[in-house]
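Reminder: ligand-aware prediction takes two inputs, not one.
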Amino acid sequence: MVTAESPPVPRHVAVIMDGNGRWARERGLPRAAGHRAGAEAVRESIQGCRDLGIEFLTVYAFSSENWARPKSEIKALMSLLEKFLKDKANELMDWDVRLQAIGRLHDLPESCQNQLHETIEKTSGNKGLTLILALSYGGREEIIDGVKSVLDAVRNGHIDEAMITPEVFSQHLYTRYFPDPDLLIRTSGEMRLSNFLLWQISYAELVVLKKNWPDFRAADLAECVDEYASRHRRFGKL
Ligand code: IPE
Ligand code: IPE
Ligand code: MG
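Here is what comes back for the chain with magnesium ion:
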């Protein structure tokens, strides 16, 4: 049932892009090949969002916990990220996509940070979809950084402790410029959040797909959005 609270198209879609390694293993390929195919699938979801009129797309590309992976895999992922940012900059311009990033970005290799900031700057005037990359991102880390930021504001006398509400606290998170996700998609069948946007998804609709991320197509996104439109978002009300 579609109600006033659940417009048929979500404003903000967040995606846990999981299953690159399994996709590669099923084909007898190295994990890095799965990550390469995964990067291409991001392109599909950007197209899908543009076709559907979705305003914000956040993709979980590298978690705080992913730093515990073998050094060789981290290296492959970082060079892929840098290449993605460099190669896709013109396409993002053509598509009117504005790039943004959330996470502890200063943990990324310097060349990645530079390329990231260059592409963010280049696309900053675009008015279509906002693509948000979650990089070195952890929900708990974000909340801790938010707490520190709120404490600073109280200490500096910018706000009074009594003024701290969920709305005010949201303004101290990495995501302060974006609305909360309406729809959270996870691929590869795993039913967990893996430390993604813990604060922001408190009322998101969840859809888990069996497919691995490199097989995700614009049509899959459209199906998830159909599923979303069929949900009755109650927000605790009747
Ligand atoms: C998701 O795919 C990409 C990242 C976490 C960087 P995985 O690499 O987690 O793939 P699986 O889960 O091992 O199949
Ligand atoms: C979540 O996937 C992180 C990203 C998609 C970047 P993981 O593969 O790291 O999550 P777990 O380990 O299965 O929880
Ligand atoms: Mg995984």
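The chain is about 40% helix and 15% strand. Residues 17-22, 62, 66, 77, 188 surround IPE (ligand 1) (CB under 6 Å). We will return to this case in the review session.
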